[in-house]
Amino acid sequence: MSSLKFADCHNDLLLGVLHQKERGIRDPFGDFWLPQLKTGNVVLQVLPVYVEEQFIGEGALRRSMILFENAWQIAEQHKSDVALCLNSGDIAKAHTEGKIALLLAVEGAEAAGSSLEFFDLFFKMGVRLLSLTWNRRTMFADGVGESDTGGKLTSLGIEAIAEMERVGIILDVSHISENGFWHISEVAKKPFIASHSSMHALQSHPRNLRDKQANRIVDGGGFIALNAFGAFLSNSPTIDSMIDHVEYAVKLVGKKNVGFGFDFMKDLIDQVDPVLGNTLVDVSKWPFVVGLDRPSDLGIFGGRLIERLGDELANDVAWRGMTAMMEQLLPNLKTGKAN
Description:
By secondary structure, this protein is an alpha/beta fold. The chain has a single domain, classed as TIM Barrel (Alpha-Beta Barrel). The chain contains 13 helices and nine strands. Strands 1, 2, 3, 4, 5, 6 and 7 form a seven-stranded parallel β-sheet that branches. Strand 5, helix 6 and strand 6 form a beta-alpha-beta unit. It is globular.
C-alpha cells in the first residue's frame, strides 16, 4: 500500500451523492465517498456536474443547480476535511490545512441551453472547469457521439468560449468531437485541458487523444489527464495498461503536463439508478480495470506506479503536475481576473 498522493481531474461522485440522498441517505459523502478519498490519499478532486439523459432539456438547469448546491453543502458540512477552491492559491491553502481541495466542473453545457449569460452564473456558483459537450450534441458543439456529422463549434459555441475565457472558466475538451477540438484550437485564446481522456496511439477509441491533439493542448499551456476506463486503455485492460498510457503521454508531452482523470465508473454505477448506464450500453459488459475501480484502490495503484516510474516521476504525474497547472489556470484573487 503506497502513501502516494493523487490529484483526480474527474470523479462523478456528486451524481452518486444525489442518487443516494434521493434514496434517503442523510450524508452519503461523509459515509461513503470521503473515506474512499482519504484511503486513496486524494488531495485534489474535480467534481463534474453531469446531467443524465432523462433530464436533458429544460430539466438540465434544475438538475445542475441541485448538484451545485450539493457540492456547497458538502464543503460546509465537511469543512474540516475538504475545501471548495475558487481561486489561485486556494489549492495550496487547502493542502497546508490538511484538507482535500475540491474543484467544481460542468460536463456538457446542456444546462446553459442557448444562453451565454449562464456561464457567468456558473462561475458565480463556483464552477471553474467546463466542457461544452458530453457525447451528445449541444447548442455549442458536437460530442464524440455525433462525430459522423463532421460538426465543429456552432457560432454560439465560439461566443461561449470567449465568454468562458472572460469570466475565468477553464475549457475542457474531453468528449468533444475531433473536428470540434481543432475548431477550438483555432478560436481559443487561453489554455484548455483534457480532464479525462487517454492516448489514441495505444487504444484507438474516439474518446482518446491523438498525439497531435495532446501536443496542441500542452503547447497552448494546458495539460492532459488520463482516464482509467478499460475501453480507453486496451482490449484486455489491466493496471499496467493504465501505466502504459502514462509512460506514453509523459514521453510525448512531458511529466509536468500529465495527470489523472480516473472516471471511476464502476464505483458510480454501483451507487446510482440503472438508467444511467442503460441509456447507452449494457453496463455488465463494460470493461472495468480490476483493482482500479474506486478512489480507495489508489493505494495499491500508487505502489505499482512507483515500481514502474520511480518515486519522483510517480509524484509528478500523480499530483504535483496537475496541482501546479490548476494553480496557474485558476483566477487570480489579487487581480480579480482570470489568468
